[in-house]
């Protein structure tokens, strides 16, 4: 019994030392990789090379998997983004994403529930926050001529990683704060409206609905407003309701259902209804197209 306990403790210590060394090496590698990517992005975006040379280049899913964003690991958003962006990815697009990716946890480990303490410790090290950057690098590679903006609530995180998000305009604020959103809208659109807005923020009903209603006016005619993680409309912890459309509670999905109803009968129950051209939904994600001629 004593021998088994000694061997077990030895295994725990060895595992900790191994994971520490691996974590330290990985952070150095990630930092070096981020710097290398960052260094290559500026000349790439400012290049005057022929935009038509697009053969054999990776699609959205391939690029997103390279950087580890949960848009393609946990979710299947590649179908939506390739559907609407693949044909215009070489254009000069202005894109806003709500949520820089702070406090994200590696999707390979966050749902695991190991039993033994040694394994628990191993998973603790391997599932630490990896910080923002997955979507950032994905968009910069997938859309080589993008003018990229982010809204992030966590100011400390955004400041910590500012050297790794240098090719984006990062605004710090709460997506439910209409005063902040109005100020952002005024500052960020002095040189034009957004071609695409993506809400990958906090995923609560108030956050998603408030952002949609305020930021919709910053989408250019013909542009897209995409809302991710719509499964939270059925989660009570996010303000949703498992009852779905049968519920009297307004969720983001019930809001979108109302927009569809308005679209079908020409009504304007919601303030943005008369400007919506189409609503396209896939699993956990919907894309709203704004009318070209208002």
The rounded distance between the terminal residues' Cα atoms is: 78 Å
Taken in chain order, the helices and strands follow as HHHEHHEHEHEHEHEE
Average pLDDT, to the nearest integer?
Answer: 82
From the spread of the alpha carbons, the general shape counts as globular
Q: Which structural class do the helices and strands define?
A: alpha/beta
Radius of gyration: 22 Å
The largest β sheet comes out as:
7 strands, mixed
Oligomerization category of the chains in this entry: single chain
Query: Judging by the overall fold, what is the CATH architecture?
Result: 3-Layer(aba) Sandwich
CATH-defined fold name = Rossmann fold
CATH superfamily: Vaccinia Virus protein VP39
Instruction: Supply the number of structural domains.
Output: 1
Strand order of the largest sheet: 3-2-1-4-5-7-6
Keywords: Signal
Protein name: Hard-surface induced protein 5
Organism: Trichoderma harzianum
In words, what does this structure look like?
- With 294 residues, the protein is an alpha/beta fold.
- The chain has a single domain, classed as 3-Layer(aba) Sandwich (Rossmann fold), CATH 3.40.50.150.
- The chain contains nine helices and seven strands.
- It has helices at 2-45, 60-67, 78-85, 117-126, 134-142, 155-160, 178-188, 205-215, 252-265; strands spanning 94-98, 147-152, 168-172, 194-199, 219-228, 276-282, 285-290.
- The chain has a seven-stranded mixed sheet with strand order 3-2-1-4-5-7-6, with helices on both faces.
- Strand 4 (194-199), helix 8 and strand 5 (219-228) form a beta-alpha-beta unit.
- Helix 1 runs parallel beside helix 4, helix 2 runs antiparallel to helix 5 and helix 7 (178-188) packs parallel to helix 8 (205-215).
- It is globular.
- The chain starts with a helix and ends with a strand.
- This is Hard-surface induced protein 5.
- Keywords: Signal.
- It comes from Trichoderma harzianum (Hypocrea lixii).
